[in-house]
């Protein structure tokens, strides 16, 4: 309990003792009305002085129609018509409800803060042979830092000395520690639980993984869902309407139907107490907040509650293939050379691909294993979706797909295992003459089949887009049970297909696209919801995507949709429950069939129940 909450509790206890004493004295001594006013007033003022001050401030700031104004008006009115116990009790119970709400909201916020408590406090940097403790923001790219057991890695980098185990649960949701040694990449925010390591930083703190995550979480609250915007607008018009309705209820029946003024004023005051919209104003945003917190625990970072709402309506998920449904960890499985040795062909291919960041290029360079002489390569051009052209030792070389060969008038020769239009079969030509091809292997991820199965169970249509040959793509699609497969696509073809699917969708269902973030930014930004997988190192993907997965597990796509749907169910439950209870009690109050105590439950009780229901969204990430 915070210091502020403890003060509120002490104030409530004092007010409750004074209220009980006043209640006993008025009943035992049969005191007159003015004496009851004096006895109950201290309890009322101790419990509600901040509410009264808030109401006055609201009036002077031109925003009178808030919860404090309604509660002040109702309780002062109760004292005015001689219902002193009810007036004091309403304020006391209201403050008890407010304290309960504060504790519930505080716990949920602390839970989320604990999930995202990954900001490193310091970095131990080596400068001039000395170890200095500095802020992570003061460490430059390329410097060496020491990370001891129990410390969080402050910046992204590469291990240069030592080996360890890393706890990445706060980043990826993965509970099993990951072993890491010399030459392996490490990301900031990971907890070192194995041994002392030295890390050469890959960049500055503001571009690190932990800084990106914190920025995403902090900016998420600014993007509100339609349900939140509805509640904001609803409260803006609802409260003045309630005050006008209460005035009409208090004075119209006595003026035109000869009713008793005190009775209709009492009904109007009940009307005011019931009408406080705090159950909606607090619980709906809290539901989204808790849902996004649950998603972050699973390694799913949602940029705002508006994307939670959009994601919950997903009817189609479109996957990129390489790096998304397949591992993207390419390996050279075979080399077929013409008019030269396999070693010579691999040497030419490695030189051409050494300037590319594509995973296929990396696999060829790894397979080469030898020393690459950059001076032998010049005029390198990367041809999107086709391959690479370059000058090697002054001679023109092409390395890429069969489409690239055919576009230059070269006929590719394929062997078994090499699909003629597959980008995983890299064809090589030099001086306009075909030299051979290299076959690249890529495996389906272990969780891909489970992800597709869960999505189909949830009624979501699954589609795969790829630049691979149709036969290779169909094999993956058949293995995973995908609904549609589109193959032999260039990047612009993927955008066109997604636009066509968006145009032909039915009803309010939305389309999500999941890609590995390397070259999918155009499609990520075009879809209703763009999901970048394992893309914390890609500026373009983080900027274009609406949801960022901290690792490359496709099952997290299904988890994200499941969490968003559960969150939206809780939001709808709170809206329907709060409005239904309030409407019933409002009608009963207007008809004189209820009292102030029931009105307090309809306000404070409903608020507490709605908040407890909202906090359930924190469990949305559990399986």
Brief sketch in words of this structure:
By secondary structure, the chain is of the alpha+beta class. The mean pLDDT is 82.
Description:
Helix 2 (33-60) crosses helix 4 (84-115) and helix 15 packs parallel to helix 20 (555-590). It is built from 21 helices and 22 strands. The longest helix has 36 residues, at 555-590. The mean pLDDT is 82. The protein has a seven-stranded mixed beta sheet, with helices on both faces. A six-stranded antiparallel beta sheet has the order 2-1-3-9-4-7, with no helix packed on it. A six-stranded antiparallel beta sheet has the order 12-17-16-15-14-13. Among the domains are: 140-203, Distorted Sandwich (Calcium-transporting ATPase, cytoplasmic transduction domain A), CATH 2.70.150; 303-327 and 444-565, HAD superfamily/HAD-like (Rossmann fold, 3-Layer(aba) Sandwich); 331-441, Calcium-transporting ATPase, cytoplasmic domain N (3-Layer(aba) Sandwich).
Shape: elongated
DSSP strand tally: 22
Helix content, binned percent: 40-55%
User: Widest sheet: strand order?
Assistant: 10-22-21-20-11-18-19
Structural category is: alpha+beta
Rg: 33 Å
* Name of the CATH class of the domain at 303-327 and 444-565: Alpha Beta
What percentage of amino acids are in beta strands?
Answer: 15-25%
In the CATH scheme, what's the topology name of the domain at 303-327 and 444-565?
A: Rossmann fold
Oligomer: single chain
pLDDT averaged over residues = 82
Question: Would you identify the CATH architecture of the domain at 303-327 and 444-565?
Answer: 3-Layer(aba) Sandwich
C-alpha termini separation = 30 Å
Major sheet characteristics: 7 strands, mixed
CATH superfamily of the domain at 303-327 and 444-565: HAD superfamily/HAD-like
Spans with pLDDT under 50 lasting ≥5 residues?
none
Number of helices: 21
């Amino acid at each position: 309990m915070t210091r502020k909450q403890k003060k509120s509790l002490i104030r409530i206890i004092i007010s409750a003792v004074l209220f009980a004493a006043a209640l006993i004295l008025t009943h035992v001594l049969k005191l007159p009305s003015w004496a009851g006013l004096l006895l109950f007033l201290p309890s009322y003022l101790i419990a509600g002085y901040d509410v009264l001050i808030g109401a006055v401030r609201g009036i002077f700031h031109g925003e009178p129609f808030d919860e404090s104004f309604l509660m002040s008006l109702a309780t002062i009115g109760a004292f005015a018509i001689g219902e002193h116990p009810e007036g004091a009790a309403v304020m006391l119970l209201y403050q008890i409800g407010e304290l309960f709400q504060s504790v519930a909201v505080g716990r949920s916020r602390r839970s989320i803060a604990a999930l995202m408590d990954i900001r490193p406090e310091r970095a131990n940097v080596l400068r001039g042979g000395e170890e200095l403790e500095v802020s992570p923001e003061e460490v430059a790219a390329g410097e060496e830092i020491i990370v001891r057991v129990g410390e969080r890695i402050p910046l992204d980098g590469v291990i240069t000395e030592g080996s360890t185990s890393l706890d990445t649960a706060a980043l990826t949701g993965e509970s099993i520690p990951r072993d890491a040694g010399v030459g392996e990449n490490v990301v900031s925010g990971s907890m070192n639980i194995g041994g002392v390591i030295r890390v050469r930083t890959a960049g500055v703190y503001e571009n690190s993984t932990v800084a990106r995550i914190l920025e995403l979480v902090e900016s998420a609250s600014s993007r509100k869902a339609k349900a939140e915007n509805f509640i904001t607008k609803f409260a803006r018009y609802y409260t003045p309407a309630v005050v006008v309705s209460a005035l009409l209820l208090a004075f119209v029946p006595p003026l035109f139907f000869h009713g008793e003024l005190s009775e209709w004023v009492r009904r109007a005051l009940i009307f005011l107490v019931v009408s406080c919209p705090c159950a909606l104003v607090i619980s709906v945003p809290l539901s989204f907040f808790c849902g996004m917190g649950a998603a972050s625990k699973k390694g799913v970072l949602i940029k705002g509650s508006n994307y939670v709402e959009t994601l919950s309506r997903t009817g189609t998920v479109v996957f990129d293939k390489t790096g998304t449904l397949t591992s993207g960890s390419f390996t050279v499985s075979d080399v077929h050379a013409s008019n030269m040795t396999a070693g010579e062909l691999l040497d030419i291919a490695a030189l051409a691909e050494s300037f590319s960041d594509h995973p296929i290029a990396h696999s060829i360079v790894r397979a080469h294993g030898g020393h690459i002489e950059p001076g032998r390569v010049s005029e390198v051009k990367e041809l999107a979706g086709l391959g690479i052209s370059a000058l090697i030792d002054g001679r023109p070389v092409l390395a890429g797909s069969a489409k690239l060969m055919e576009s230059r008038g070269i006929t590719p020769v394929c062997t078994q295992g090499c699909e003629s239009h597959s980008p995983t079969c890299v064809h090589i030509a030099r001086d306009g003459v075909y030299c051979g091809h290299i076959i690249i292997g890529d495996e389906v991820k272990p969780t891909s089949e489970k992800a597709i199965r869960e999505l189909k169970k949830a009624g979501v249509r699954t589609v795969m887009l790829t630049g691979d040959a149709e036969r290779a793509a169909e094999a993956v699609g058949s293995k995973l049970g995908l609904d549609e497969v589109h193959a032999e696509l260039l990047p612009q073809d993927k955008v066109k297909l997604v636009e066509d699917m968006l145009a032909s969708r039915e009803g309010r269902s939305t389309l999500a696209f999941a890609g590995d973030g390397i070259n999918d930014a155009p499609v990520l930004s075009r879809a209703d919801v763009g999901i970048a997988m394992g893309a914390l190192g890609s500026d373009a993907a983080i900027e274009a995507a609406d949801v960022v997965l901290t690792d490359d597990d496709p099952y997290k796509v299904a988890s994200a949709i499941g969490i968003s749907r559960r969150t939206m169910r809780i939001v709808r439950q709170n809206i329907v429950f709060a409005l239904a209870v309030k409407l019933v009690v409002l009608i009963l109050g207007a008809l004189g069939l209820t009292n102030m105590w029931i009105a307090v439950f309809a306000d404070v009780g409903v608020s507490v129940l709605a908040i407890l229901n909202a906090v359930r969204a924190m469990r949305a990430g559990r399986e």
